[in-house]
Amino acid sequence: GKTHHRTFVVKSSPYTRLCSTKNILTVNGKFPGPTLKVHRGDKLIINFYNKAEYNITLHWHGVRQLRNPWSDGAEYINQCPIRPGNNFTYNIQFTTEEGTIWWHAHSGWARATLHGLIIVYPKLGTAYPFPKPYAELPIILGEWWKKNVMDIPGNANKTGGEPILSDAYTINGQPGDLYPCSKQETFRIKVKQGKTYLLRIVSAVMDENLFFSIAKHKLTLVGTDGFYTKPFQTNYIMITPGQSMDVLLETNQPPNHQYYMAARAYVSAFGAGFDRTTTTGIIQYQNTHNHNSSSSPLIPELPLYNATRASAEFTRRLRSLVTKEYPIEVPPKVDTHLFFTVSINLVNCTGKPCRGPFGKRFSASMNNISFVYPSIDILGAYYYGINGVFGRNFPENPPKMYDYTGKNLPENLLTPEFGTRALVLEYNASVELILQGTNVLASDNHPVHLHGYGFYVVGWGFGNFDPKKDPLGYNLVDPPRETTVGIPDNGWVAIRFRADNPGVWLLHCHLERHQSWGMSTVIVVKDGATPETKILPPPDDVPKC
Ligand code: C2O
Ligand code: CU
């Protein structure tokens, strides 16, 4: 493979959206940030300079970072933050994933504007497992706040209140023509009739799952999170924060119309408020006498906000491609069974201000532990054997007597413990992890992301996981491989992976408000016995906290 060098300078730049101008964090002055293009097998070296007034780290979401947790970028997990005026070099190797993934800041809410695409093309000399598309179209779904996004978590972290809702969703950084002052800049693309385009879709959205569709056009899904899928046709996709999808679009419709693409929220639970607006972009056909160019674009049909069935029908169709070139490696036998509950909680306020309901504050937890970020990075503490930074006693199983429906819970189970604990796995363990959503306070669909791994989603369902019945329905033949999986509302997901990437890896909900409340934990995978199965040595420029 080739080695690419890029320079990323994080700085504030003025951007105007929704009738007002503010300074936002950008990479090289761009929003959304630059697209990185590599082939599988390549290396990428990013020289990162922090010229902003905040601490920043960058994460390469969906890159396996084999044996190299030093460049994974989760703040206080893999490294200390890069302080204003400092720099750091990220070393990224593309060993496993292929397709569309992305990068984003991993510091507070900075990822709202600090994000961009990573396109991993097939290894040089090899081809896509589908006919070569005529062209590719990047589609980054995002969210825009009129306020400074760096001030938003303050409300959630410090007061336990609900974070402020966004003012718009965006397509490639633009809200689109349904929002005020946004018509001129609506994202537009011109396509040729009779071609196949590859849409490279990423959800950089902070707090909501989205439905996305294009008027009159079918979408063919061919990949998720950097892994190819068995192609299937659909009218819409459901994409969670953190996920990416490769989608083929055939331009086979009458060229004398314009067609909207649109996205809006999918929320399973109506309890919490959510941004109910719709973002749009426009597809136009080239070189046609556009008689109707003044008429408005055709509108796509999007499932309703609470269309859990539409979401489930889409998700149920995801399957790994499975060919000789793209085999799967689902551990057939499991030696390490893990079961984590994923919950929103209410806890007593200690001190003011306190902005949650009933005089309490929101928090969030896994197995009843609400994650507290340490003051030096866990990877450094683990590697150098520094005690007192994190505990190795994350519970492998939920607290006893746990009632997933949230009914009849004793007070001590309603209230999580705060702590910085990691789960330690042996090298090469065959792991099954059940993620069980609970309704302790409210139900929600949690998109859970694991760093350092592409896991197989072997099963999922609604209600409580049944350890006798549910494993009988597992798909061990062609389960989809993902790095972010949505736990359905009040339901469960079963994932499997082999712990063959030593290091320190964050596992967290990719809804930013839940992460701000503590819905995270850390998985430490020990070194193997041979030199090729150990963590690489740290780089020279590791920052200090
Ligand atoms: Cu997309 Cu921990 O992140
Ligand atoms: Cu969540």
TrEMBL record:
<keyword id="KW-0479">Metal-binding</keyword>
<dbReference type="InterPro" id="IPR045087">
    <property type="entry name" value="Cu-oxidase_fam"/>
</dbReference>
<dbReference type="InterPro" id="IPR034285">
    <property type="entry name" value="CuRO_2_LCC"/>
</dbReference>
<dbReference type="InterPro" id="IPR011706">
    <property type="entry name" value="Cu-oxidase_C"/>
</dbReference>
<dbReference type="InterPro" id="IPR033138">
    <property type="entry name" value="Cu_oxidase_CS"/>
</dbReference>
<dbReference type="InterPro" id="IPR034289">
    <property type="entry name" value="CuRO_3_LCC"/>
</dbReference>
<feature type="domain" description="Plastocyanin-like">
    <location>
        <begin position="394"/>
        <end position="527"/>
    </location>
</feature>
<dbReference type="GO" id="GO:0052716">
    <property type="term" value="F:hydroquinone:oxygen oxidoreductase activity"/>
</dbReference>
<feature type="domain" description="Plastocyanin-like">
    <location>
        <begin position="10"/>
        <end position="123"/>
    </location>
</feature>
<dbReference type="Pfam" id="PF00394">
    <property type="entry name" value="Cu-oxidase"/>
</dbReference>
<dbReference type="InterPro" id="IPR034288">
    <property type="entry name" value="CuRO_1_LCC"/>
</dbReference>
<dbReference type="InterPro" id="IPR011707">
    <property type="entry name" value="Cu-oxidase-like_N"/>
</dbReference>
<keyword id="KW-0325">Glycoprotein</keyword>
<dbReference type="InterPro" id="IPR002355">
    <property type="entry name" value="Cu_oxidase_Cu_BS"/>
</dbReference>
<keyword id="KW-0439">Lignin degradation</keyword>
<dbReference type="Pfam" id="PF07732">
    <property type="entry name" value="Cu-oxidase_3"/>
</dbReference>
<dbReference type="GO" id="GO:0005507">
    <property type="term" value="F:copper ion binding"/>
</dbReference>
<dbReference type="Pfam" id="PF07731">
    <property type="entry name" value="Cu-oxidase_2"/>
</dbReference>
<comment type="function">
    <text>Lignin degradation and detoxification of lignin-derived products.</text>
</comment>
<protein>
    <recommendedName>
        <fullName>Laccase</fullName>
        <ecNumber>1.10.3.2</ecNumber>
    </recommendedName>
</protein>
<keyword id="KW-0052">Apoplast</keyword>
<comment type="similarity">
    <text>Belongs to the multicopper oxidase family.</text>
</comment>
<dbReference type="InterPro" id="IPR001117">
    <property type="entry name" value="Cu-oxidase_2nd"/>
</dbReference>
<dbReference type="GO" id="GO:0046274">
    <property type="term" value="P:lignin catabolic process"/>
</dbReference>
<keyword id="KW-0186">Copper</keyword>
<dbReference type="GO" id="GO:0048046">
    <property type="term" value="C:apoplast"/>
</dbReference>
<keyword id="KW-0964">Secreted</keyword>
<dbReference type="InterPro" id="IPR017761">
    <property type="entry name" value="Laccase"/>
</dbReference>
<feature type="domain" description="Plastocyanin-like">
    <location>
        <begin position="137"/>
        <end position="287"/>
    </location>
</feature>
<keyword id="KW-0677">Repeat</keyword>
<dbReference type="InterPro" id="IPR008972">
    <property type="entry name" value="Cupredoxin"/>
</dbReference>
<keyword id="KW-0732">Signal</keyword>
<keyword id="KW-0560">Oxidoreductase</keyword>
